[in-house]
Design a protein that fits this description.
The protein is α/β, with parallel strands linked by helices and 352 residues long. It folds into 2 domains: 4-125, NAD(P)-binding Rossmann-like Domain (Rossmann fold); 128-303 and 332-350, 2-Layer Sandwich (Dihydrodipicolinate Reductase, domain 2). The chain has helices at 15-22, 38-48, 57-61, 75-87, 102-115, 129-139, 167-170, 174-189, 301-318, 326-345, and strands at residues 4-9, 28-34, 52-54, 68-71, 91-95, 119-122, 146-154, 195-203, 232-239, 244-250, 259-266, 270-274, 278-283, 286-290, 349-350. The protein has a 9-stranded mixed sheet with strand order 14-13-12-11-7-10-9-8-15, with helices on one face. Helix 2 (38-48) links the parallel strand 2 (28-34) and strand 3. The protein is globular.
Length: 352
């Protein structure tokens, strides 16, 4: 059996989920890793028994037997590195967000079409069992006309620092880091309608608060306390199919506890996907709450990545339609651009 040869570009935290998932597949071999930090790249290669180490992605892309790459760099590397890889004849799985902005994303989609190589965006939460269950319910019209949605990812303290909080490398704070997942899920579940308008506010009141005690903290691989991104944000997003979405997020906020939620409201029933999946409907003239029984391990972070990576490889080996095409990443970037623009101008932004 001929194996798909894969390279990892960017050896930071999220890349480990990619590499572990690739190495679970019998028809895949991770043959190269690239990182600007040579010491980290060598340590990574040693940990995962990867034969080739690079500090420049151009050198890696010259490998003739390299079929595909995962781009798991800082956000500002997603577009240029993915474009270089596509032009070098490699298929690309690019972590979310697809780019720093819609303009970059448009160029990525264009190059993917020109080269005929797959560009898949890492919307990993689409692969959760809870996502699959709720999407099937919507497609079977169990919720009826979904007219309103609410979603949020609120952290009491969760600014990772380093590149995450450096606008030049990240393109934003929790909106582009956390919001990208939650907004995409609402779009994906509801048939991927196009957004038509956004009214938003971003908040820069609290800062990073690196000296807060008593919290379990996650730090970026290259941690620093530089911070010029938003603490949090809220937005009202309207879609072409009549759906209205209320969205909120934060890295730092004076709240009692972290909160992750996604709720949909339809003409026949309502549903919640996070923190647990539930349905709210009517039976025999009574309001009824239903909680499906799902193994929590079926939609954990590792299992979602395992499914995402397996799907990427199946797209390459069997030619199946990609669940996360780059065009979806472009539509999401248009929404994120509009959130930041609306917050900056204080006005509603119309999306063409």
């Amino acid at each position: 059996m001929e194996k798909i040869k894969v390279g990892i570009i960017g050896a930071g935290s999220i890349s480990h989920f990619h590499t572990r998932a690739y190495q679970k597949l019998e028809n895949v071999e991770v043959v190269a890793v690239c990182d600007l930090n040579e010491e980290r790249a060598k340590a990574y290669a040693k940990e995962y028994h990867i034969p080739h180490v690079f500090t420049n992605h151009h050198d890696m892309l010259q490998m003739e037997d390299l079929d595909a790459v995962s781009v798991t760099t800082w956000n500002n590397g997603h577009a240029p590195i993915s474009i270089d890889a596509l032009k070098a004849g490699k298929h690309v799985l690019c972590e979310k967000p697809l780019a720093m902005n819609a303009k970059e994303a448009e160029e990525m989609v264009k190059v993917s079409k020109e080269t005929g190589k797959l560009l898949m965006v890492g919307f990993v939460r689409r692969f959760g069992e809870n996502t699959k269950l709720l999407k099937e319910a919507i497609e079977q019209n169990q919720l009826g006309d979904v007219y309103y949605a609410k979603t949020g990812c609120i952290r009491r303290w969760g600014n990772p620092g380093g590149w995450f909080s450096d606008w030049k490398r990240s393109g934003g704070g929790p909106v582009i880091d956390l919001g990208v997942h939650m907004i995409d899920l609402v779009r994906y579940l509801n048939g991927k309608p196009k957004a038509v308008s956004v009214s938003a506010s971003t908040f820069n009141q609290l800062g990073m608060k690196p000296d807060v005690k008593g919290m379990v903290k996650y730090y970026s691989a290259d941690y620093s306390t530089h911070n010029d991104v938003e603490d949090g944000a809220t937005a009202l997003i309207k879609f072409e199919n009549g759906l209205t979405l209320f969205f909120e997020t934060s890295w730092v906020m004076h709240v009692k506890q972290d909160e992750l939620y996604l709720q949909l409201y339809g003409s026949k029933a309502g549903a919640q996907m996070e923190p647990t999946i539930e349905f709210y409907e009517e039976r025999n003239n009574y309001f009824t709450d239903t909680t499906p029984v799902i193994d929590p391990n079926a939609y954990g972070f590792d299992s979602n990545f395992n499914r995402e990576i397996a799907h990427f490889i199946d797209c390459l080996t069997h030619g199946i339609p990609c669940l996360n095409p780059a065009e979806d990443g472009l539509e999401l970037m248009k929404i994120l651009d509009a959130i930041y623009e609306s917050a900056k101008t204080g006005r509603e932004v119309i999306i063409d």
